[in-house]
Amino acid sequence: MFDGLKKKLNSFREDVEETAEEKAEESAAELDESEAEAADTEDAAGGVETAASAEEGTETTPEGGEVTEPDTVTAETAEPGDESAETATAERDHAAAETTAATGDEAAAETGGETVATEADGADEQPASLASEEAAAALQDEDEEDDSGPGRLKRAAAFATGKVIIEEEDLEDPLWELEMALLESDVEMNVAEEILDTVREKMIGETRAQVETTGELVETALHDALYEVISVGQFDFDARVESAEKPVTIVFTGVNGVGKTTSIAKLARYFENRGLSVVLANGDTYRAGANEQIQKHADNLDTKLIAHEQGGDPAAVLYDAVEYAEAHDIDVVLGDTAGRLHTSNDLMSQLEKIDRVVDPDMTLFVDEAVAGQDAVERAKTFNDAAEIDGAILTKADADSNGGAAISIAYVTGKPILFLGVGQGYDDIERFDPERMVERLVGEES
Fold first, then answer.
1. 1 CB contacts (<8 Å, ≥6 apart)?
2. Could you give the angle at the alpha carbon of 188 between the alpha carbons of 184 and 193, nearest 5°?
3. Looking at residue 362, what DSSP letter applies?
4. What does each C-alpha distance from 408 to 193, 237, 366, 372, 383 come to in angstroms?
5. Residue 137: exposure state from Cβ atoms within 10 A (0-12, 13-18, ≥19)
6. Which of 195, 198, 204, 348 has the most CB atoms in a 10 Å sphere around its CB?
7. pLDDT by residue (tens digit) across 110-136?
8. Using one digit for the tens of pLDDT, what is the confidence trace for 64-112?
């Protein structure tokens, strides 16, 4: 069931996985480049410091004081009258002057003067940091992002911390392919756009850990996007029938040949299996052979059928069926209607009359899952004529696209309640949005 769409969704997942892996390789290369740049900076800083020390040609004490040459003669050690004393005194005065000038230069630098520190001093004050430390800081600094997404350093930082950032450009091509796949699978255009918007919202700007596969991230995004459109309007069908005042009247609408009458018979079996009694009513009074067709189903199920002559008033037939159910304590009335085309105003008016006269508890729209976009358009029109409460899709087992199953609930605001999955009376299953999504994006085949 829906195998074709499942393959297309898997193709989208594979495309994103491939893009993410390419991005991971680019991030790894960027990280290596950043580390290499940091190493070069550290080496360069060390070289400048060594060169500066060699040029100075002095030794420093642990406290930073200068040690004089051993052969230097000072004023204190010279003998009185010695010419060397005068020389020492002159040298001392000259050194003091230089110290004073240096001090003044430093003060000027601190107060905004023109004197600046040497390159060696700058190297000492700005030690190189590791690329991973720079990257971690960049990852936390949201201001470093530009309009096109995370910068090179931030992307490398994400990779260094074990993650890969998903950017819009990474999804551009895969999302276009996904849109085409949805439309080719008969998903209604507005529904396809809603799915794409949700996938973007769930994925762009997110990070995925390298230990978590990109496929898992994509699966989660697709799951949420599909579930949001498929689960619209869902309610507990069994609970509503059980709690409603009896008899519960359910009218079935839809075009000719989509399996409407067979679906009625399947629902009769469905209710009887749950201990509820049923009466059938044939409101399809225009089609030759309609009475015979539904009568055969009633006989097979050993169920009572209310019918009038061909050409009678459909609303009158359904009204009589409700009266019979009330008189005989029947729990559920299942009423067929003419398989009218949604373009026929006269027949649609008859449907509106049934709605007014009978005031059914539920009106269910029946169409083929394989009808795709046509089923979606018909569902909208029938809902406008006589508001439906839900839908039954027949031939779901033969549908590889799944477009109608995905679209009908979203465009009408009313849920899909049952899927027909075969020709037997028991071949009908409650529609479960979660199970449906798992069929499309999970492991279930």
1. 396, 397, 399, 402, 421, 439
2. 95
3. E
4. 15, 17, 11, 9, 11
5. middle
6. 195
7. 444 444 444 444 444 444 444 445 555
8. 444 444 444 444 444 444 444 444 444 555 544 554 444 444 444 444 4
